[in-house]
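Protocol step 4 of 5: obtain the predicted structure for the target chain.
Materials: sequence only (see below). No template structures provided, no constraints applied. The aim of this step is simply to have a reference model before the mutagenesis design in step 5. Sequence pasted as it appears in the construct record:
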Amino acid sequence: MAVRPVTFYQVVCDRCGYVDDEGDYAAWADADQAQQVAADSEWLVAEFPNQKHYCPECYEWDEEKDERVPKAPQVVLHTCGDPRCTDPEHLVIADADYGGSVLSRGDGFNPNWEHSK
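Step 4 output (structure tokens):
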């Protein structure tokens, strides 16, 4: 029996890094199918200026525009004060406007993110 690599596709939230892999499937054979499943799962697909994907937790309804819009970008906060720190115990994710709540480390936390997303 031979073993060979294969490519599958997942949609990743451009704001928090969440991947919806809790259903029957974790990945799809082509990118179009992955994007269609995300759209059917109430994800926001922002087409312009470049295509971005937002999970249901990362967009909100804008009453003035009468449409769904992405929430503010997120940043990594270094609780130890060292911006080079990658210790997961010293890092939290917060909304860039700092008016939102800080997400727990289990909510799509990725210590390899840059300071702004």
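Step 4 remarks: The chain is about 10% helix and 20% strand. The chain has a mean pLDDT of 76.
Proceed to step 5.
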